[in-house]
Amino acid sequence: MTTLASDSLDIRHVSKRYAQRGAPLAVLDDVSLHVRAGEFVTIVGASGCGKSTLLRLIAGLETDYAGEIRAGDAVVRDTSLQRGIVFQDHRLFPWLTVAQNVEAALRNAPLDAAAKRRAVAEHIALVGLNGFEHAYPNQLSGGMAQRVAIARGLVNRPRVLLLDEPFGALDAQTRARMQNELLRIWEQERITMVLVTHDVDEAVYLGDRVVTMAPRPGRIERIVDVTLPRPRRRDSAEFARLRDTVLAGFDDREPPGDTGGGNGTRIVAQDARRIGAWRLAW
């Protein structure tokens, strides 16, 4: 995929509030961020800092907010095939095969049946699942199911891929493999990626920049450039230094609670219970 200016994201003075017991609850406050075309940005922060809410706004899943979000030159007003999203819960349809689950994302794509079959085959191959086209979700490992979810997120050839804790439910070994797989796809496709995570190590390993968000209300606290060449060594002194730089913003802060309030329950219900463990070193 050729990287174009239209692959960039501009988040301009975005604020988001929910009603909680009749009173407004500030979830995001004056968030501004520019994501360059083809860049891999990771966002890290405590539970309740608004990371997932911000991703939903970028995806167009929610449109009631102050400020502006632009994908290229277009204001985000709704969902779009140009912005794919992958959640922590793979959300595969259990009654559909791998190929059918990927093809489900093409329902509204302007492609004929043959073109859809080719796109599905290409993206199953891209995530390394050749031979599993006719398998059902209950026949897959957790990592394989997430590969299907990534293929489904990419099959429409979006300009931007949004990832909300996509590896949070995986064991450490599978998680590391999936991180490398995602990097391989990113390097091959040159797609703009924004990944939300609780894991600082993951954020530094994957990102060109790490955006740290603070809670109550959610806001960008700092942005750390990751200048390490790829492939990155987690055991290197420079990697440890960057990880400590990101963590330094959390060292003196009280462990946050869930500031999502009643809205948190609503979002969990809407998004089929994506739950992630907190991994910052409190």
Indicate the CATH topology of the domain at 1-73 and 192-274: Rossmann fold
What is the percentage of strand-forming residues? 15-25%
- Please state the average pLDDT score: 86
Reported CATH architecture of the domain at 1-73 and 192-274: 3-Layer(aba) Sandwich
In whole angstroms, the N-to-C terminal distance is 41 Å
Number of strands: 10
CATH superfamily of the domain at 1-73 and 192-274: P-loop containing nucleotide triphosphate hydrolases
Structural class, please?
alpha/beta
Secondary-structure element series: EEEHEEEHHHEHEHEEHH
Helix segment tally? 8
Largest sheet: 6 strands, mixed
Low-confidence stretches: 254-282
CATH class identity of the domain at 1-73 and 192-274? Alpha Beta
Question: Could you characterize what this model shows?
Answer:
The chain has a domain of 156 residues: Rossmann fold (3-Layer(aba) Sandwich). 32% of the residues lie in helices and 24% in strands. A six-stranded mixed beta sheet has the order 6-7-8-3-9-10, sandwiched between helices. Strands 2-1-4-5 form a four-stranded antiparallel beta sheet, with helices on one face. β4 and β5 form a beta hairpin. α2 packs across α3. The protein starts with 8 loop residues before the first strand and ends in a 12-residue tail after the last helix.
Entry summary:
By secondary structure, this protein is of the alpha/beta class.
Essential attributes:
disordered C terminus, 8 helices, globular
What are the SSEs and their pairings?
Blueprint: E1 9-20, E2 23-35, E3 40-45, H1 51-59, E4 66-71, E5 74-75, E6 83-87, H2 98-104, H3 113-126, H4 142-154, E7 160-164, H5 172-189, E8 192-197, H6 200-206, E9 209-214, E10 219-225, H7 237-248, H8 261-270
Parallel strand pairs: 3-8, 3-9, 6-7, 7-8
Antiparallel strand pairs: 1-2, 1-4, 4-5, 9-10
Helix pairs in contact: 2-3, 2-4, 3-4, 6-7
